[in-house]
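re the bet — no i am not wrong, look at it urself. input seq straight from the record:
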Amino acid sequence: MNVRLIYPRFERFLEAYPELADVPSIAGLWEFKMPPALGVPMLASMIPEDIEWAATDANVTPVDFDEDVDLVALSFFTPQASSAFEIADRFRARGVTVVMGGMHTTLNPEDSAAHADAICVGEAEGAWPQMLEDARRGALKPRYQAALTPPSEWAKPLRSLFSDTTHYDWGAGLVQVARGCPRACPYCNMPGMHGPDLRFRDIDEVVEDVASLHGRDLYLTEDTLMFKARSVARYTTELFEKLADVSPKIFLTSALVFNSRPAFLDTLRAGGAQCNYVTFGFDPISRGVYAGDPGMTRAAIDIVRRTEDHGIRFYAAFGLGFDEDDPGVFDRILRFCDDAGIVTAEFFIGTPFPGTPMWADLKRQGRLLHEDWSRYNCAHVVHQPKLMSVEQLDRGFVHCWQEFYREADMDEALGCFNGDRLGPSARIHRSAV
C-alpha cells in the first residue's frame, strides 16, 4: 500500500490585507513560512515499515493529483478545511481512498465525513494504526472514534519530516508537553479535542526531546504550563529546573492570567524561556483593560513589567470583536500598549471555531456570516459583532496593526528572536493529531 500524508494549505495571516503589506515594519513580523504542526509528523511515525509513504506540505509544495497512491490522509485545522476538502474531492474523483483527522474533523465530524471515505474523531494514536490495517484489508469503516491516549503512548513526531530549511523562515521545534484543559474558554477548541483533564508527559522525556533539538528555537505548544494551579506550577518548575542544564531557547504561550510570581519567572528564565506569547480578550483582567478600567489596567501593566523585568519578552496578542467590544476598544488597546511599554504585539479577530462555546452561541443566535473555512484564520470577520458593524471591526483590526507598528523599532520588537521569526500563525500551529 502507498500512502500520501498531506498538510493542506491555509491563508497566511494578513495575506488578504495589501495595505498592511506596504508597511515594512509589519512585514518583518508576519511574512514568513514555518513547518507544519505535529499532527502529520506523528502520523508518519506510526506507519508500519512495510507501507510506502510520503508527505506533502501543500503550503510550500504543489499536490500531485496524478500520483499513483492508494490512500491519502489529511490532518488539518479549521482554516485548512476548505483546502482539505478540495484536495480530497479531487483524489476521490480518481477512486483514491481518502481519510481525514485532526482538530476540525474531531470538532465538526459531519463536515469532514462528506469529503472522506473515513474519518478519525479524537487523538490519532487511538485510531490511525487500525485505519491503516483496515485500509490494507479493504475493510475501512466510515468513522473511527479514538479514546484519549495516556502520555506514555503518545506518538513521537518524526522530526526530520519537514526539516528542509529552504522552504521555511522559522524552523522552531514544536514540543508537546501536555494535552487537555479544564477551562471552558469560549474561543478555545482544546478541551473539545483533548478532553477536560490535564495530561502531562514525563518530565525527563520532555527534557530528552528538547535536548534532541539542541541549537533550534523551541516552541512549547500548551498554555496550560503557565496555569497558577499548584500541581501545574510544580510540574513546570521541575521541568524548567532540568531544562537549565540543556540551555534551550524557549517560546511559551499563555492567557494574561498566567503564573507571574517572581520566583516562578526566575525559574522559567533560568531554564531558557525567552518569550511568552500572551493572549488578551477573555479573562477578567484583559476585559478590564479593554473597557478602560483603571484597576484592571494597572494589574495588567504590572504583569507586563514583571515579565520583562525577569528577562522574558512579553509578546501581547489582542483578540478583537467580542460581544463586549465597542468601536472605542481599538484605541484603548493601543493606549494600554503605550502605557505598559509593550514593544512586541499582534492583533487578531476573535473567531468562532466549530466545537467551541463561542461557535455554539453565535450559531444559535444566527450571527455567523458564512462557513467559508478558509476565512476562519483570525484575520477575517466571520460573525456579526454585537456592538459594532462588520466594517468597523475589520477597519479597527487594520488600524491596530498600522498604528502599533507605525513608528516601532523593529530591532527591539523582534530582538528576542535573534533574527528568527515567530508570527501570528503560531496560534493555529498547536499540535493536533
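see?? The chain has 17 helices and 14 strands. told u. also The mean pLDDT is 91. so pay up
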